[in-house]
Amino acid sequence: MEVVVNALIKEYGKPEQVVIEVSRDLKASREAKKEIQARITANKKRNEVLNKNIRDANPSIPFPNREDRLKFRLWEELNPMDALKRHCIYCGKQIGGADIFNGNAIQVEHILPFSRTLWDSEHNKTVAHTSCNAYKGERSPFEAFGNSPSGYNWQEILE
């Protein structure tokens, strides 16, 4: 399915919205439908917790959207155990909770360039300082930072 969507994006550009109706869910067994409903319920609860955490971190966002939740989740992934040890994977500088929604200081970034891989999954995304993302551009991390340009340390990026 992802291959088809990526091919359509390559041919026609990024759509504003993608709606996929899967007919196989209609003929699923009662148990399979229960599992689907359980996933939906779990995702809804996860989103409610994320919305609360986002509002607590930044009261100016009363209604967090999907992009806000993605940015917050990716920020949490930088160090799940300690919010004070969440750093930009490229420059190593700390990314605080207040930084996430503070103007354009932090961006969701494709680790491997989407333009070259068409890989748009969360597994290929992180949050990084806008300046680091701009410097990296449409290059892989190695292409951008492999020779440890000023302000960046390739060995630390690898770690």
Keywords:
about 160 residues, mainly alpha
The first-to-last residue Cα distance is 33 Å
Helix content: 40-55%
Round the Cα radius of gyration to an integer and report it: 18 Å
The average pLDDT score comes to 89
Q: pLDDT below 50 for ≥5 consecutive residues: which ranges?
A: none
What is the global morphology? globular
The helix/strand series, from N terminus to C terminus, equals HHHHEHEHHH
The total of beta strands comes to: 2
Give the strand content: 5-15%
Structural class: mainly alpha
Enumerate how many helices there are, as a single number.
8
Strands ordered across the widest β-sheet: 1-2
Largest sheet: 2 strands, antiparallel
Walk me through what this model shows.
The protein is mostly helical and 159 residues long. The protein has helices at 2-12, 30-57, 66-77, 97-100, 114-117, 130-136, 141-145, 154-158; strands at residues 106-110, 125-129. It is 48% helix and 6% strand. A two-stranded antiparallel sheet has the order 1-2. Helix 2 packs across helix 3 (66-77). The radius of gyration is 18 Å and the shape is globular.
List strands and helices in order, with pairings.
Elements (H helix, E strand, L loop, with lengths): L1 H11 L17 H28 L8 H12 L19 H4 L5 E5 L3 H4 L7 E5 H7 L4 H5 L8 H5 L1
Antiparallel strand pairs: 1-2
Condensed summary:
The chain contains 8 helices and 2 strands. By secondary structure, the chain is mainly alpha-helical.
